[in-house]
Structures are given as C-alpha cells and as structure tokens.
Amino acid sequence: MDRVMFRRLGLGLALVWLVFCLFPLWWVLVTAFKPPAAVSGGATYIPFVDFKPTLQAFKDAFSGVRGDFAGPIFASITISVISTGLAVFLGAMAAYALVRFEFRIRLLAGLAFGVLSIGGFAVLNQGIGLSVPQSLGLVLVIALPTAIWLNGCNLPGPVLGNDDVTFWFISQRMFPPIVSAFALFLLYAEMNKAGVRLLDSFPGLVAAYTAFGLPFAVWLMRDFFANVPVEVEEAAMVDNIGRMRIFFQIVLPMSKPGLIATSMIVLAFIWNEFLFALLLTSSKWQTLPILMAGQNSSRGDEWWAISVAALISIIPMIAVAIFLGRMMRSGFLAGSIK
Amino acid sequence: MSQIPQLDRVKYAFIFPAFLLVLTITLFPLIYALVVSFQTIRIVPPVPAKFVGFDNYVEILGSARFWGSIQVTAMIVLISVAIQYVLGFALALALHHNVPGASLYRVSFLLPMFLAPVSVALIARMLFHPVLGPVNEFFTMFGLENLPFLTSPNFAIATLITVEIWQWTPFVVLLMLAGLQGLPTEVFEAARVDSISAWRRFRDLTFPMLLPLSVAVVFIRLIEGFKIIDTVFVLTGGGPGTSTETLTLFAYNEGFKKFNIGMTSALSFLFLIVVILFGTIYLAVAQRMIRRYQ
C-alpha cells in the first residue's frame, strides 16, 4: 500500500518541480515577443490570448539599435570554443598520463618549489627591483628545474602518487575564483604596462579560460580513459609504436564519446563564466554574460529587450543540456562519481 | 602497470603542457597577489606601493562589512544547499523508480544548471518584480500585494536562495540519480522479498549506501556556492545597502570601485582561508558521520 502512496508522492513532486523548473523559461520565451503594453500592464502569459506577439525586440537587437550584440556574441563564441578545445586536449593528455603511468612526486621537492618561488619572487621584485613579469618568469625558470632535480634525489618524507596529482589539478577549482581571477588581473595589468597586451585581449582570455576548464577536463577524461581496454595499447606497444602515436591514433578515437561529453560540459562552464570576464575585459572582448549584466541597469523595464538577450545566451546551452540528457540515459556519467 | 624505464619518460610530455599552464595562469599570479596583499597600492589615485605588513588583514578582520558578507554568504549557501540536497535526492528517487513520464523530466530537470547565472538572475528580476511580475500576481491571490522581493534585506536573501535552489538542485538530481543507478539491485530485491517497508528500505539501505556520495555532492555544492557573485551582482547588486553582499562581491567592490588592490588581495586570501576552514570542518564532521553509519 505504501508503495502506491510513495509513487503518488513521487509523481506529485516531479510534476510540481517540472512546473517550477520550466515556468521561468516559458516566461523569458514569451516575454521576448511581447509589445511594451503587455509588460507595463502587469503579468501576461499566453501569446495571442493575453497579448499580440511581435518580433520587434529581435529586430532591434540584431540591427544594433540597442547596442552592440554582435561583438559580444562573436567574442563569446570564439573564446569559449577555442578555450574548450585547448582545455579538453591538454586535459585529455594529462588524464591519459595519470591513468597509464605512475608519477612519484616527493612532498619535499614540491615544498621546495613553493618556497623558492615565493621567496625568489620577493627578492627579485622587491629587493633587486625587477618588474613583475620578469621576476615571475625568472623564478619559474630557476625553481622548476631545481624542483625536478630535487625530485630525482633520494629525499626523505612522504611521496605523492597519481591520486595526489589528480587532486592537485582538481583543487584548482576548489578555491574561490576571485583569488585567482584577481591575481591574474594584477599580472595582466603588469604585462600591459610592459607592452604585452593581455587585459581585454583574445590570447589573455583564452589562456585564462583554458586554465579554468582544464581541471574539469582532467577529472572527467580520467574516468573515460580508465575504461578504455588496455589490451589494444599493449598490442600496439609490442609492435613498437610510440606512445604518442598510440594516444593520438588509437586512444583518442576510441574515447570519442567521452571527449564530446567532456567538451560539452567544459563549454557550458566557459560560456556561462562571469567573474573572469568581468575582471579581465573592458570593452573589446566583452563576453555575453558581461553584456547581460549590463542590460539590467541600462534597460530598466524594457523586458522584451532583456528577454531577447537572455534567450541568445540560453539557447546554445539548452541544446547542450538536451544532448547531455540523452547521453545520461545511456548511463555514461555513472563513472565520474567514483 | 609495468613500464620499460626508457619509455616512461614520455609521460612528462603528456602531463607537462597542462601542468605548466595551471602553474603560470593559476598559481604564479597568486605569488604576486600575496606580495601585494602586504602593501598599500592604489591605482586611482595612484599611490606608490608601500609595505604595511599585516595592516590590510587586520583592517579587514576588524571591518563589520567583512563579517556581514561572510554571514550573508554562509546563510545563502547553507540554506540553499540543504534544500537542494533534500529536494534533489527526493527527485532522484522519483526518477529512479520511473514515475510516469520520467524521460520527459530528465532533460527538463537538467536544464537550469546549464544556463548562465547572469541570465537566470535577469529572468528572476522580471519574475520577482514587485508590481509587474508573475510572482507578485501569485502572492496577490493570497492578499499579499507588492512584496518587496528585492528591496528588503530578508526578502532579497530569500529570493536569492530561491534562485540558487532553482538553478542547482539539478546538479544534486544528476549525481544522486547516477548513484542510485549504481547500487546493487540484489540487496533491494532481497529486502522486498522480506517485505520490508519502503521507508525502512530507504533508511536502512539506500541512504547509508549513498552517504559517501551525498557527502561529496554537498561538499561540491558548498564550495561552489561560496563563490556566488553573478546572481547577486545582477539581482540585488548587494543591496539594499550591503545586506546581500557576498564575499566575492565584497572583494570585487573593494578592488574595482575603490581601486584598493592591496586590500582586495588580502581579502581574497582571507576568503581562501575561510573556504579551507569550512571545508576541513565539513569533511571532518562528514567522515565521522560516515563511520558511525558503517
């Protein structure tokens, strides 16, 4: 008996949530077609019954009367597609290495790297007076080989394995983005002073977003590679085919579904990202979320215009969600929660 | 995983590009920011850098606005994540037991988490308009007209929590559903044969078995929730006053309205410490809870 009751309860909950979930989307869809009178007179819901739909808002948006839409759309598309491609590619390579090889990092070597970097930077920048980019570059060139050399020595202390390296990648996503976004803003500002334009520029944003998407890519791709049968690779290795060729010609094609799914998720994160774009762009490379945030103050009650802008940013992601929903049914995400 | 030593070298070629990128873009700027956090630097009007030790940190720790923003952030995050978890788990259970029309729900339930929080906030601004919005119309039916959804502190926080729940419950549904599908079916068959009630099956089997996953899901949501800025930025701008200002928004305002970058750097590192503290406490408590159940 309680089986029936629970079923009814579940159905009721699902239906209520469905309405709650879809109503805002219905609202933004119909509001984009509303004439001004249908907004200022109070809430209206159904086109042709409550109001007479018009395409005016879309025409305004695309003719550029209401500010530049084409620029941010172009910026958003190019930046998110290229950063996603780079992040998934680099992430897949790193994930493959983490699945198939064994890494041993001595904690002491890692700590030495941190101390050398921070101390070295303080000395070079504050003590000797080198510029910020110069000292950072120099510190990297000195500290990294030193740490790698130290790692080869027989130092005491704990040794970190692959799981720790993976965690190191993922932990980049755990700390608040304002920390790294603001630090990156400071560095880019210094680079601008040195004559390398990174603030409000295409390379600067792509670099930032590639690093932003990389942790997800490593995390998700690791599971896909773990499920690729190792036998094929072993057979290829017996035939003396190089590891790189194995990766590009055998492993990558075999994990195509994983690559596509990962790209979709990373793309969604980058497309929607707000804080980095807010700090790192000012005019030329503003992305859609920044344009959207501006709509609020500049448009006031022109809800039809706001809705069109919201729809432009939402529609690609609806496609992504539908696609992933299909993949989810085939149970592909089950692996990534372990 | 036995490798021939010479071939092993190639692993560095695989991992180094990603490693270097994270190092140069995410970690190395932090070094500079750390140094800046011990200085007074202003961009507008330009003031030359001066070493001030821990002054920035002390000043922030003494400011009511900092503690206020922690309180606001914690309130929004804790309440919304708690509701997200309960609702999301219940919905995942409903979907798992194939309520009629489950395939239709699956995609619609996923949708919100893929939309830009900025767009969601813009939509919410229309919905929660105190005069013209449909939410106002809904409450008017109960005789509550023109509630100040965005202009009174308590209402504004409740609105933000509602938006967060709308957007992120799908994440809980997605992961809990994946967890439910991964559970061994034999145990549940046996329990059904022994005619153990549905509620007890949930309490004694499903819930404990999914506890580690639950801990992870709630952890991810808490960490992500603490970063909240875009929704607040558009929906209330931190107002009225600073009553809905979250930590990230506070840091942003400090840096880009006052151009006091030493202060913002110090603030962002304090934020980091807050998150690490919260995370450590949470994981310690969660670990103990898991152990007690097993």
TrEMBL record, chain A:
Keywords, in A-Z order: Cell membrane, Membrane, Sugar transport, Transmembrane, Transmembrane helix, Transport
Chief site of localization: membrane
Protein localization: Cell membrane
GO biological process: transmembrane transport
Domain of life: Bacteria
Single GO cellular component term: plasma membrane
Transmembrane segments: 73-98, 105-124, 165-189, 201-221, 259-283, 303-324
A Pfam family assignment: BPD_transp_1
InterPro entries, sorted: BP-dep_ABC_trans_perm, MetI-like, MetI-like_sf
Occurrences of domain ABC transmembrane type-1 (ranges): 73-324
CDD domains: TM_PBP2 (cd06261)
Topology versus the membrane: Multi-pass membrane protein
Family, similarity comment: Belongs to the binding-protein-dependent transport system permease family.
UniProt-recorded name of the protein: Multiple sugar transport system permease protein
Native species: Litoreibacter albidus
UniProtKB/TrEMBL annotation, chain B:
Membrane topology recorded in Swiss-Prot or TrEMBL: Multi-pass membrane protein
Transmembrane helix among keywords: yes
Gene Ontology CC terms: plasma membrane
Keywords tagged on the record: Cell membrane, Membrane, Sugar transport, Transmembrane, Transmembrane helix, Transport
Gene3D superfamilies: MetI-like
InterPro entries: MetI-like (IPR000515), MetI-like_sf (IPR035906)
TM spans (from-to): 12-35, 72-95, 107-128, 165-184, 205-223, 266-285
GO biological processes: transmembrane transport
Domain of life: Bacteria
Domain ABC transmembrane type-1: 70-282
UniProt main location, coarse: membrane
Cellular compartment(s): Cell membrane
Family designation: Belongs to the binding-protein-dependent transport system permease family.
Protein name stated in the entry: Multiple sugar transport system permease protein
